[in-house]
Amino acid sequence: MRKQALKLIRGFSFNAEVAMPKPCDLQINIDGQQIFLLKEKVISKYCGGLKKILNHRKRRGHGKQELGIRINDFPGGPEGFELVSMFCYNNGKIQITEANVCLLHCCAVYLGMTEEILSNNLLQQTETFLERIFNWKWSDTLVILKSCERFYAYADGYGLLEKIISVLAKFVQNSDSNLLMSSSPSASSSSSSPDTNSAKRFSFSSKKTTPEKLKSTLSRKAWWFDDLATLPPNIIEKLVQAIGAYKADNKDLALTRFLLHYLKLATQTRVVNCSNNSEYGALAETATYGVISVGKKMFSCRGLFWVLRIVSKFGLNRDVRRELEKVIGGVIEEATLDDLLVSGHDMGVYYDINLVIRLVRVFVDMNGSDSDDGMCLQKQKRVGRLIDKYLREISPDQNLKISKFLRVAECLPDSARDCYDGVYKAIDIYLQSHPSITFEERTRLCRCLNYSKLTFEASKDLAKNPRIPPRVAMQALISQQSKVPTTDYVTETPRVKPSQLVLYNEKTRNSITQEKKDMELNIDKMQWGVIELAKLHKEMNNHVSKLILLDPARTSSSPRFC
C-alpha cells in the first residue's frame, strides 16, 4: 500500500492556491480533461491512496489551504473517476456489470480502495464479481475483454487480462476438440454458438478421422473466428500464449486457421507496414509454425502459396520462412503458373523471382538432380514445363536482368526437359522486350539452350530469327544435322525394289484385312516423311553456307557451344 501511495504522489500534482466554495474542499483534475469538486472526507473514507496524499499535505503545513490535485493517465480517464465518485457518494454501493467490472477493478487498485481502508470496499466487490467469470457465457467474456482495450496497460499489470484470456482459451480449446474429433459438418459450423454446441463439445465421433476429412473440416471457420478477429494483436498474442501454442510450440490446427484468417483481415482492414508489423510478427510466426507442423497433409500446394503470401507481409523471420519454403518446394510439382506469380518488387522486378529459384532448388535437392527414378523424373518434367511458362511470363519485365533469367532457366537439370522449345520462346520474348542489349549479351542469354532438344520447327525459326546471333543460329542448325541421314535423297517418290512388290489379283485384293490397309497407310506416311527430311536437310545446308559466307573469320574453326 505504501508503494501504491508513492506511485500516486508521483502521478499527482498539487495546487494549494485554488479557492473553492464550501462544502467541496477538494478539487481533482483528471488527465486535464475534467475537474471534479469533491468532499475530502467522503473520498478519503474509501480511497486509501488519496487519503495518504492528503495526510502528506497536512504534515507539510497546508491544512488550512484548499487543495487541488491533478491525476494523469487515470484508468479509463474521467469516466473511470466518475464511477469511483458515484461509489463513494452512494455509501460504497454501485451496480457492477460485465461492461464496467474491469474498469472499476483497475480504479480500485489504482486508488487503494482495499479492505484495509473499509470493509467491503470497491476492490473486494469487484473481485467477488470476477470470481464467477468461469461460469459466464462466451459473449459476456468477450464484452469484458473488449472493455479492457482503453486501459490495457492497467488491466494487464493488475492480472485481469490473464484471468479473462484463460477463460477464452478454455472455450477455444474445447471448440478445437469438437472440431477435430467430430466428423459432422454441423459441429464446426460458423453459425453454431458455444451454448448450442455445449452438449457436443466433448463428444468423440466413433468414425475414423482421416486426413481428407480433417482438411475438409478445417477449411471451415470455427464459430469463434469472427468474434476474436475484432481484438487487437496484443490480446490475440496473449490468448495464443495461454493456449500453449506460441511460435514453435504451435501444433493446433484450428488455431493456425484462425491466425491466418486474422492476419488476412489485418491486411484488408488495417494499415500494415514496416512501422507496425512487429505487432503482428509473432502471430505470423506462430501461424507459420502451425502450417509447417502439418505441411501438405492439411494444405494443398495452392494453400501453401496462399499462406506464404499472407505471412510475408509481416516481416517473417528468415529461418521460419526457409522452413515454410522447404514444405512448398517439396510439392511444387503440383503448382500452377498463378501460384508462382508472387509479387516481390526486388530491384524493381515485379515478381519475386528469387523465391521461385529457392523453391526449385529445394525440389531438386529432394528429388535428385540426375535421378533415374521414374517417379522423380516425371515430377522433374512437370516442374520443367511449369518453369518454361514462368520464364515466358517474366521475360517482358524491363528490369529483369539476363543473369536472373539464366538462374531461373538453369535451376533445373537438363533431364527435366524433353524439349527446349519453351525456353527458346522465352528467350525470343526477352529479346523483343529488350532490344537494346548487346550482341555479347544475346549470345550469353542463349547459353541455356540445349540445341539438340529443339524441334525442327523451332530450329528453323531460330535460324531465321534476326534477333538471334548468327553464331548461335549456326550452332543450332549443325546440331540438327545429326538427326538427318547423310545419304543423298531424291525428291520423287522413293523407288521400291522388285523384291518388295506384291502383285494382287481381284480376289486377293478383296481379301485384304483392315490391318494390312493401316500398315500400307503408315508405310506411305513414312515414305513422305523421308522426303520432307531430305528437303529440310537441303534447306539447312543452304543456311549453313550463307552463315559461313557472312562470317568467314570462323571458317577455320568449328563452332562452339555458347
Automatic annotation (TrEMBL):
Compositional bias per record (Low complexity), positions renumbered to this chain: 183-199
PROSITE patterns noted in UniProt: NPH3
Segments of this protein annotated with the region Disordered: 183-204
GO BP term (any one): protein ubiquitination
Domain NPH3 per the UniProt entry, residue ranges: 222-483
UniProt keywords, alphabetically: Ubl conjugation pathway
Pathway: Protein modification; protein ubiquitination
Keyword set includes Cell division: no
PANTHER family in the record: OS12G0117600 PROTEIN
Similarity comment: Belongs to the NPH3 family.
Protein name (record): NPH3 domain-containing protein
Species the sequence originates in: Vigna unguiculata
